[in-house]
Amino acid sequence: MDSKLASAISGLDAKLDAKSSAELAKFIEMEEQRATFQAQVHEYTDLCWDKCITKIRPQLDNSDRVCLVNCVERFIDTTFLLMRTLGEDARK
Amino acid sequence: MTEKLDINAVKQAVRNQIVLQNFQTLLSNMVPKCFEKCVIKPGTKLDWSEESCLVRCAERYNDALSTVSATYIGRMKRESGQDS
């Protein structure tokens, strides 16, 4: 979606003055960052819901919440660990 | 001059598109999860208990989303603090 957005916007450049064009580029960069963040939150929630929410309760209880927090933290740890592992393998 | 675009209109269109995209992602992730949890044996229509379970499930999914979001933000802050 991001690249489609970027190309759609670059097509608009001809119809914008230089100042507006720069302002729009900055705006798009910010929105892309936010969209990437939101996509990541959706992905983590998708994954951690299956691991942590075994029963639908009137509210999330404390153990649900602790599990979700741990799930996100350990997923990020896993990402870093495997990045390092792949990096070391590549250097061999 | 008439063919110049209103930059604020472009920004609003982009924002609307992102909100829509976000909503679609939320819905397409949430529906299968809540269906699986709440509609155990599909009948001729959703009954009262299935409906109330689905409503609660959607609320809990949103709670989970908020918890995940806050955790991720906290982690990003910690990671960027370490770098500097």
Give a short synopsis of this structure.
Chain B: It comes from Polyrhizophydium stewartii. The complex is a heterodimer of chains A (92) and B (84). Chain A has 92 residues and is mostly helical.
Describe it.
The complex is a heterodimer of chains A (92) and B (84). Chain A is built from three helices and no strands. Chain A is mainly α and 92 residues long. Chain A has a single domain (3-91), classed as Helix Hairpins, CATH 1.10.287.810. In chain A, helix 1 (2-12) packs antiparallel against helix 2 and helix 2 packs across helix 3 (62-91). Chain A is flat. Chain B has one domain (2-34, 46-77). Helix content of chain B is 81%, strand content 0%. Chain B has helices spanning 7-38, 48-83. The model of chain B has no long low-confidence stretch (mean pLDDT 92). Chains A and B meet through helix 1, helix 2 and helix 3 of A and helix 1 and helix 2 of B.
Spans of at least 5 consecutive residues with low confidence of chain A: none
Largest two-chain interface: A-B, 41 and 32 residues
Q: Whole-number average pLDDT of chain A?
A: 88
**Sequence stretches where pLDDT stays below 50 over 5 or more residues of chain B:** none
Count of the domains of chain A: 1
Report the helical percentage of chain B: over 70%
Ordered list of secondary-structure elements with their pairings:
The complex is a heterodimer of chains A (92) and B (84).
Chain A: H1 2-12, H2 18-52, H3 62-91
Helix pairs in contact in A: 1-2, 2-3
Chain B: H1 7-38, H2 48-83
Helix pairs in contact in B: 1-2
